[in-house]
Amino acid sequence: MTFSAKRWREDFPILRPSAKGRWVYLDSAATTQKPEAVLRAVDDYYRRYNANVHRGVYRIAAEATERYEEARQRVARFIGGDPRGLIFTRNTSEAINLVAYAWGLDNLKEGDAILVTAAEHHSNLVPWQLVAKRTGARLRVIPLDEEGHLDLSQLPELLEGVKMVALGHASNVLGTVNPVEEVIRAAHEKGALVLLDAAQSVPRMPVDVKALDCDFLAFSGHKMLAPMGIGVLWGKPEILEKMAPFLGGGEMIGRVEWEGSTWREIPWKFEAGTPNVGGAIGLLAAVDYLEKVGMAAIARREEELGQLMARRLRELPGVVVYGPRGQRTGIVAFNVEGVHPHDVSQILDEEGVAIRAGHHCCQPLHRLLQAGSSCRASVYLYNDEEDVDRLVAAVQKVREVFRVPG
Amino acid sequence: MTFSAKRWREDFPILRPSAKGRWVYLDSAATTQKPEAVLRAVDDYYRRYNANVHRGVYRIAAEATERYEEARQRVARFIGGDPRGLIFTRNTSEAINLVAYAWGLDNLKEGDAILVTAAEHHSNLVPWQLVAKRTGARLRVIPLDEEGHLDLSQLPELLEGVKMVALGHASNVLGTVNPVEEVIRAAHEKGALVLLDAAQSVPRMPVDVKALDCDFLAFSGHKMLAPMGIGVLWGKPEILEKMAPFLGGGEMIGRVEWEGSTWREIPWKFEAGTPNVGGAIGLLAAVDYLEKVGMAAIARREEELGQLMARRLRELPGVVVYGPRGQRTGIVAFNVEGVHPHDVSQILDEEGVAIRAGHHCCQPLHRLLQAGSSCRASVYLYNDEEDVDRLVAAVQKVREVFRVPG
Amino acid sequence: MSLDDLYQELILEHARYPHHRGTLADPTVTLDAQNPTCGDEIHLQLKLSGDERKIEDIAFSGHGCSISQASASMMTDLVLGLSVKEALEKVQAFQDMMRTGEPREGLGDAVALAGVSRFPVRIKCALLAWMALKEALEETGAM
Amino acid sequence: MSLDDLYQELILEHARYPHHRGTLADPTVTLDAQNPTCGDEIHLQLKLSGDERKIEDIAFSGHGCSISQASASMMTDLVLGLSVKEALEKVQAFQDMMRTGEPREGLGDAVALAGVSRFPVRIKCALLAWMALKEALEETGAM
Ligand SMILES: Cc1ncc(COP(=O)(O)O)c(C=O)c1O
Ligand SMILES: Cc1ncc(COP(=O)(O)O)c(C=O)c1O
Fold first, then answer.
1. Closest by Cβ to A274, choosing from B91, B100, B128
2. For chain B, what is the domain count?
3. Which residues span the domain enclosing C12?
4. How far D18 CA sits from the closest chain B CA (Å)?
């Protein structure tokens, strides 16, 4: 059975061809487009049973609450986790900050270390810098090898004194998937916890928190077909239970007295105020859609297209492709010699191909790559070989306009 | 010119009469319903120009960024504030927590006091308890008089040693509007800052931060026609500039190094990760709609219906209405003697009237009212006198089922 | 679903004049439980026999809606005099009834609450006292 | 809007072979500016006459897209030898041109950048050097 991107594409209103022809979207690592099924689920919520959750006795309030909690169950099942550990946040960034504050402020102190990798997204780096500053803990960095893989040769030494390993699962620049099982095992042996930044893995491969045995996992709905404004932190219930709350407010309380308060049980302890119910319902529909397509099929497909894209781009003279030559995801960062990524992206846009240009929230990694910025093309289930052809042809056009030698 | 709720009602798909007749929604203080214009604006975004903001060169990314920043300008104008001080959050709760953490952790210490009122919503109480616990600061409470108005007779004494006054603008239970100008003036004289919890004021009356001279203002989009998942913190730019960031991540950074980072200018310094662009665009459309109806007209209308509801309910034997007899908003809390609010709300639901039952996130206030919980009916621009009739008739039905004497 | 299912005369009677409402002079176990979403609270007290095998006396106080009050009243009627083991079986039977909506035998007046299962938001109200009992009995460790 | 507006030969020439790229031995003012959304950076150096009235020499380094590089190159050509006041007027004229899209007189080669105004995301690129110059001149306080 071959994967039919063309068939899936029909479900995405924004991807329908216009009079000018078909537009090619290759920026799904930044945010994905949304299928009709997700848009309808959210619309149906607002047109039929929009209400604040948890406290309403009337019918639509009960229905909204039920669907919201069903979304929690469903998304937890999707990642193989206990739903009591599933907290809805705005996005990956907020999820990581939640842990950095609620776990970090109480569990880090002078002399402790937090271990990250050299390829970390700012969202899995800056929160740890902020909490390090407040607690006196220090950051330590797992280096990369030439191809962008983690260099784990010094891992045991790096783990000395580490309380938290904050680790990207799949890179948003290099197209690598990190050997997180190995790091998790080593970290646990030394008594450190592990948070996985799964913003780029949960959308594009099967992820099972039980099998991985990670302590925390963060991801964003908008990168996996759901609307913006909904994300997830999953944490092991026994760890979450011991943590102080993060945001204070409605819904997360037990008993409120002037002198202090008690908290509701997890996961609600970590959800303050009116949640994004419509967003959670959208994420539920997105997860249904993804399972219909099949996460294993998506992962295989990503790998195929990623390989093809990397190979075809590498064939062009004056084009450098970052990341490994072997196994990879459908996220490919590259540069055209002597042409700034902004200019590449601008010309590609004129050719009807949307890619991202910049540091992709990975300034330290770009310094390592000795590039101020890069171009990034990333595929999703609606892309196919024809889109890769269009990309390559458009990069040729860049070479012509800027007279790139070769 | 009379206010035509009936006309506005037609804009709200969820409020259209079904075969069983017209359903009466009286829970807008919890969350409002959404007009077609808002639903369409969000839908149009996802169907036409959904993209991650700020970093994209291609056309729809540019359009999404422009609309997102236009929403900031527009919402800032709506509250009369400098757009550089307008930060998009998930909701009021997150907005208040932002200040409690980012301002509080660095500016509160042992011996300092935070002043709140006895009617505070948990979202404007618990964040301060949390930061008080971390810093050694203490909470102090402005008491209420018999009718639920702030008792300001001891204000100068209460303000001694206070660094922050966290003050509800309009109560979500009592229907009162607090004399915030007076408190702000007194607080500023003593060098204290003032945060207004405007979750219930911005949706139902003209609010101008310049005129009020408050330092921070927090409110939620979902309580003013916008989708869930979008809220606002407005702060005076000169104060925000001096604050450390709250959440770390993409978008809020200047230069990221391993050892530490610099921040982007305000307001972006306080927006980490992918924002809820669709939500912001929905809020823009909501603000447009509200200005078309007219905030002054909405305020007058609220007052009329609030008065009517309070008076009609008070006329029923065995019904107690909380809050003032004089001026009030369209939020009315009450109890039916000997009948638990859950039971009242259940019977009202059967009669097609949706109200809220519970402590409305105001446990301390309910202890003051000597009620574990209460019923709350709240109107918005789509409600009218007929809805009040329906409410009163349904409460009569409660009295019959439970044989309330009188 | 109809209101009459929910607000049957028997339920209203129990809610209006609850049985075993009050406190015990010499309880073996005391347990507080609450429904944080609505603020309802129950304080449950048990007096167990010397070998902690049998519920010799029971009382409850606190506040809640008619369903939670009636449910507590019916429950206390039912489990008074039972062994810990029997009482826990009743709790299980009541939970099953709430989940399935099927009336269960051996629940005394509490069978009238079967209709609550059709009002999902109210199930928590009906369960509050039973969950408190279960927790209290498990605390005694007398099973 | 068309790509040819944006990538005119003159612009590409300046981008490929920028004028006054480098550093000064003895600058009066040095200013770093960046466009945080894309990471582009400029280091601008000025040598002012003794009374700080006149731009006697100018140089820039850093990295950025063709538009920002070309713009910096054109700007340095334009303001070299001008008084601080004249230079600030040029900055104002360039800003106006970016806002309105109308070509402005007296901007030298930089008039070729008028078309950038039709690409809103790129305006920041074109403005980077000019904003740096403005800030640098204001820092000298020589106005
Ligand atoms: C006065 C007041 N403050 C704060 C909030 C919290 O708003 P949100 O739940 O949107 O964060 C509410 C509404 O629930 C409120 O009425
Ligand atoms: C690896 C990685 N981590 C974190 C994030 C942050 O996600 P969000 O912006 O949704 O918070 C992203 C996406 O931008 C990412 O690619």
1. B91
2. 2
3. 3-140
4. 23
Rounded CA separation B342/C124 (Å):
12
Ligand 1 shell residues, CB under 6 Å = A 249-250, 273-274; B 91-93, 121, 123-124, 168, 172, 197, 199-200, 220, 361
Query: What are the residue ranges of helices labelled H in A19-86?
Result: 36-44, 59-78
Radius of gyration for chain B, computed over Cα atoms and rounded to the nearest angstrom = 22
Q: Which chain A residues are within 8 Å of D69, Cβ to Cβ?
A: 340
Dihedral in degrees, nearest 10, Cα atoms A344, A346, A349, A355: 50
B170 and B378 Cβ atoms separated by less than 8 Å: no
Q: Is the pLDDT of residue A81 over 90?
A: yes
d(C-alpha B294, C-alpha A344), whole Å? 47
> Which CATH number fits the domain that encloses residue C48?
3.90.1010.10
Report if residue B176 sits inside a domain: yes
State which residue of chain B sits closest to D35, comparing Cα positions.
Answer: B254
B19 against B50, higher pLDDT: B50
Domain annotation covers residue B32: no
Chain D residues lying within 8 Å of B49, measured CB to CB: none
Distances (CA, A) of A189 to A156, A193, A225, A287, A386: 10, 10, 37, 34, 47
CB contact under 8 A, C121 and A54: no
SS3 for chain B is CCCCHHHHHCCCHHHCCECCECCEECECCCCCCCCHHHHHHHHHHHHHHCCCCCCCCCHHHHHHHHHHHHHHHHHHHHCCCCHHHEEEECCHHHHHHHHHHHHHHHHCCCCCEEEEECCCCHHHCHHHHHHHHHHCCEEEEECECCCCCECCCCHHHHCCCEEEEEEECECCCCCCECCHHHHHHHHHHCCCEEEEECCCCCCCCCCCHHHHCCCEEEEEHHHCCCCCCCEEEEECHHHHHHCCCCCCCCCCEEEEECCEEEECCCCHHHCCCCCCHHHHHHHHHHHHHHHHHCHHHHHHHHHHHHHHHHHHHHHCCCEEECCCCCCCCCEEEEEECCECHHHHHHHHHHCCEECEEECCCCHHHHHHCCCCCEEEEECCCCCCHHHHHHHHHHHHHHHHHCCCCC
Q: Where are the beta strands (DSSP E) in chain D?
A: 29-35, 40-48, 55-63
Q: Is the dihedral of CA B78, B84, B90, B92 positive or negative?
A: negative
Least confident of B208-217, B350-359, C43-52: C43-52
Number of Cβ atoms within 10 Å of the Cβ of B134: 17
- Within 8 A of B48 by CB-CB distance, chain A residues are 14
Cα–Cα distance measured from residue C80 to residue C45, given in angstroms and rounded to the nearest whole number:
12
A366 in Cβ contact with A359 (< 8 Å): yes
Mean pLDDT of chain B: 96
Dist CA A362 CA A29 (whole Å): 13
Report how far residue C29's alpha carbon sits from residue A108's, in angstroms, rounded to the nearest whole number: 40
Helix (H, G, I), strand (E, B) or coil at D43: strand
What value does the mean pLDDT of chain A take?
Answer: 96
- A214 is a catalytic site residue: no
Q: How confident is the model at residue C35 (pLDDT cuts 50, 70, 90)?
A: confident
Full domain range(s) for residue B306: 5-26+294-401
Task: State pLDDT tens for residues B339-365.
Answer: 999 999 999 999 999 999 999 999 999
Nearest-CA residue for atom 7 of ligand 2: A92
Q: How far is B278 from chain D (nearest CA, A)?
A: 20
Torsion of CA A283, A284, A287, A288, to 10 degrees: -140
Q: What's the CATH number where B73 sits?
A: 3.40.640.10
Residues A54 and A179 in one domain: yes
Residue D40 touches partner A, C-beta closer than 8 Å? yes
Same domain for A218 and A277, yes or no, is yes
Beta pairing partners, B261: B256
